[in-house]
Amino acid sequence: MKYHIGFSQSDLGADAPQSVILSGEPERSHYIAQTYLKNTKLLSQYRGLHSYLGNLPNGKPILVATSGMGAPSLSIVVNELVQVGIKQFIRVGTCGSIQPFILIGDIVISQASLCRQGAALDIAPPEYPAVADPFLTVALVETARRLNIPYHLGITASVDGFYEGQERVESSANPYLQSWLKGITAQYRQLNILNYEMELGTLFKMAGVYGFTAACVCGVVAQRTAAESIVMADKDAAVKRAIEVAIQTISQEQS
After folding, report:
1. Smallest Cα–Cα separation from 245: which of 116, 103, 149?
2. Sign of dihedral through CA atoms 192, 160, 29, 232?
3. 142 vs 160: CA distance, rounded Å
4. Taking the CB of residue 45, how many other CB atoms lie within 10 A of it?
5. d(CA 66, CA 80)
6. Which of 147, 215, 233, 249 is the most exposed place for a label (fewest CB within 10 A)?
7. The pTM is what?
8. Is 80 among the catalytic positions?
9. Which of 25, 28, 50, 80 is catalytic?
10. What is the DSSP letter of 114?
11. What is the full per-residue pLDDT of the chain (255 aa) written as tens digits?
12. CA–CA dist 12, 64 (Å, integer)
């Protein structure tokens, strides 16, 4: 049994999945498993890292797992998932737009990441590229088009902090930023970066080093050109769009 995820390869059975949908929230993992999978089995909920085994509507096996918040937790979970045989990762998350044309409720499909994450430095040097699998990423785009879901494809800023790291001062307990963080969002906007999130840079670097395929689709829940806050009333709809794109992509790929 793997120490953190709470299950072993033998728990996955003879027809073991090779793909996982990875979510930061245990509640989201539960929702995906109960809503989109058949024959759902809870593998573990140790440390709040809920993992489920199930089948897609076409019968193919799949894992839904929780990575927790931030890159350090994700790096542990991903390492152990690789050890139990997972070869394809799709992160389904939430993000904040930093471009005015990306609206709340849209989805962002990340082709690469500006990786500003300490955990990633344990995986590879800073100059090592944090890039998604191109074929899986194109498949996500094609699914979004087919479902008529508004999407944006581009580069994501993946950072460790939710408050200071994403230049939040109005909604933070700390109104003071280090000088190098002041204006960082505007700088990223000028670099044509689309959004902020907190995990995928490390996931993409791990994919390159470990040899698995990875992609990421996030629902936009904050529009940072307008406000710092998350729009909770629209969060569920944005996340559902991202989930549907991920599920349909894997279903088409494995059918």
Report:
1. 149
2. negative
3. 30
4. 15
5. 12
6. 233
7. 0.96
8. yes
9. 80
10. E
11. 888 999 899 989 999 999 999 999 999 999 999 999 999 999 999 999 999 999 999 999 999 999 999 999 999 999 999 999 999 999 999 999 999 999 999 999 999 999 999 999 999 999 999 999 999 999 999 999 999 999 999 999 999 999 999 999 999 999 999 999 999 999 999 999 999 999 999 999 999 999 999 999 999 999 999 999 998 899 999 999 999 999 999 998 744
12. 12
Residue 54: both structure tokens together: 């199930």
Q: What's the rounded Cα separation, in Å, for the pair 18 and 198?
A: 24
Q: Which residue from 71, 108, 83, 69 is spatially nearest to 7, judged by alpha carbons?
A: 83
Q: Which one from 30, 224, 241, 244 is the annotated catalytic residue?
A: 224
Catalytic-residue membership of 142: no
Give yes or no: 224 in active site: yes
| Chain position carrying tokens 């996982």 | 20
